[in-house]
């Protein structure tokens, strides 16, 4: 017969086995749930991808820069120094026209998805016009720019062009200049709404211009120390082309777009006073208006690469700050940079040159 002691021992042993079985069960259940959670997390991204989330074109900015081969030497130069996109036109069929300025006598490549879709050579002052060889397809596109200078240096522009072409061939494509580094704000160049406004303004301005006398004004000067060029910009009323020269020097010509013009002259400035002259030319090649301003080589040199504004009749510091810097209160920044020229903020005169921040 089994003693009472043995029975108690067996009872306690059976109880211990049951407790251990429950613990093993709970541990197994916990492990199963943990493995299940892990598998769920591993496969969750696949479920997200299957939803086909559409990514806006601006999210692809980082992919816009062209790939540089190992044997190509990349020259790090600020894009605003080497590429100035002045005119961009895209029609509903996908044809792209780009005009602007870059390094003189350089090769400009337009790249999309790693492939060169257009290339051209700039002239001796850096001007270029380029048209894509084939129309772009319906959808989103990002066009990047690679410049090969005359001394075979490779420069990648920070500026790129984002384009959205609609299925409807009557819809004007959306075009914007974007910064691949995300520093500068996106600039809308073309859109259906913007084009309607431009057409309306063009009709209004054309009717108004017909009753106005020809006029031309120099608005700003920028002395590019690295490229050794003097960039002049301004506005005009009527006229077909603009001519610019330093008195006694060679004449350079530029075209007018929406009453605005831009001309680049080689920097041949002296330390003393020189006279910059611009002429407005009509269809017959005659001068119908002109403007001039006195410039000093030392003043331009001291300004560095900053832009010099030419004060116009009726200007005030608050108005200049509002139009050029985005806020009237920023006129104090202009005063700080031009202390030697501004004795009284309420008294400024036409043809004065002020450095802009």
Structure in words:
The longest helix has 46 residues, at 4-49. The chain folds into 2 domains: 63-193, Immunoglobulin-like, CATH 2.60.40.10; 209-355, Immunoglobulin-like (Sandwich). It has helices at residues 4-49, 79-82, 192-209, 297-302, 317-325, 331-337; strands at 83-90, 96-102, 107-112, 115-121, 127-131, 139-148, 154-156, 159-165, 174-179, 187-190, 215-224, 229-237, 241-246, 252-257, 260-266, 273-281, 287-296, 307-310, 353-355. The protein contains 6 helices and 19 strands. It has a 9-stranded antiparallel β-sheet with strand order 17-16-13-14-15-12-11-18-19. Strands 3, 4, 6, 7, 8, 9 and 10 form a 7-stranded antiparallel β-sheet that branches. By secondary structure, it is an alpha+beta fold.
Indicate the CATH class of the largest domain.
Answer: Mainly Beta
* SSE pattern, N- to C-terminal: HHEEEEEEEEEEHEEEEEEEHEHHE
Query: How many alpha or pi helices?
Result: 6
> Which of globular, elongated, flat, extended, rod-shaped describes the shape?
globular
CATH architecture call of the largest domain: Sandwich
Describe the biggest sheet?
9 strands, antiparallel
Main features:
single chain; 357 residues; alpha+beta; Immunoglobulin-like; 2 domains; 7-stranded antiparallel β-sheet; 6 helices; 25% helix; 36% strand
Quick summary of this structure?
The protein is α+β, with helices and mostly antiparallel strands and 357 residues long.
Present the secondary structure layout.
Blueprint: H1 4-49, H2 79-82, E1 83-90, E2 96-102, E3 107-112, E4 115-121, E5 127-131, E6 139-148, E7 154-156, E8 159-165, E9 174-179, E10 187-190, H3 192-209, E11 215-224, E12 229-237, E13 241-246, E14 252-257, E15 260-266, E16 273-281, E17 287-296, H4 297-302, E18 307-310, H5 317-325, H6 331-337, E19 353-355
Antiparallel strand pairs: 1-2, 2-5, 3-4, 3-6, 6-7, 6-8, 8-9, 9-10, 11-12, 11-18, 12-15, 13-14, 13-16, 14-15, 16-17, 18-19
